[in-house]
Design brief:
It contains eight helices and six strands. The chain has 192 residues and is α/β, with parallel strands linked by helices. The structure holds zinc ion.
């Protein structure tokens, strides 16, 4: 049974960069495939409980700053920039496109979440130490509570994954939870 403070929250679930490029492509994370079914379960539960589902997706142009570091990836005109078939948005879900690490940067996410009455973001997706971390940092500055689903985020290596989780917990005050715990929390929310 979750603590009362959890039930006072107004959460949204964010799915970060579950694109073909990062799950099957050049910048794939070895653990990406393992988190797909976990995220699928969380998204289904969120929809069932009327909790907003927001996809954040890299969609780059060749002149984007980040391309200097990683090379061209998730190019706007490529198949690799599409969301994977297993995590396709459904009616009522929201998709925002981004040109840098953070899901908040130049996407309108902050205003959108406030319009929805959201005060807490539940983060899932890839990579733990890059786009998940940067989205968490901006969530902190934008005054959102942060929950990271530990087994629904993945990175290139265990070290990258672990240090980012620890950083988000210690420095950003993020709450780290396993997906089963988050499922039972979401179950407590009324559907209206
Ligand atoms: Zn990128």
């Amino acid at each position: 049974m979750p603590a009362d403070w959890v039930l006072a929250l107004k959460p949204a679930i964010l799915i970060i960069d579950m694109l073909k490029e990062f799950v099957y492509g050049r910048l794939k994370s070895p653990a990406a495939l393992e988190i797909v079914p976990v995220i699928k379960t969380l998204v289904a539960k969120a929809r069932e409980r009327g909790i907003p589902v927001v996809y954040l997706a890299d969609r780059h142009y060749a002149f984007d700053r980040e391309i200097r570091i990683w090379g061209l990836h998730a190019s706007h005109d490529s198949e690799e920039s599409s969301l994977i078939d297993d995590l396709k948005p459904e009616r009522g879900d929201i998709v925002l496109y981004k040109r840098s690490y953070s899901g908040f940067r130049d996407t309108g996410l902050s205003g959108l979440l406030r319009d929805l009455g959201v005060d807490t973001v539940i983060l899932t997706g890839i990579h733990t130490h890059i786009c998940v971390l940067h989205t968490a940092i901006d969530a902190f500055y934008e005054r959102f509570n942060i929950i990271i689903v530990k087994d629904a985020v993945a990175a290139f290596s265990r070290e990258d994954h672990d240090y980012a989780l620890q950083y988000m917990e210690r420095v950003l005050g993020a709450v780290l939870k396993e997906h089963r715990e988050v499922l039972s929390i979401l179950d407590q929310f009324s559907t209206n």
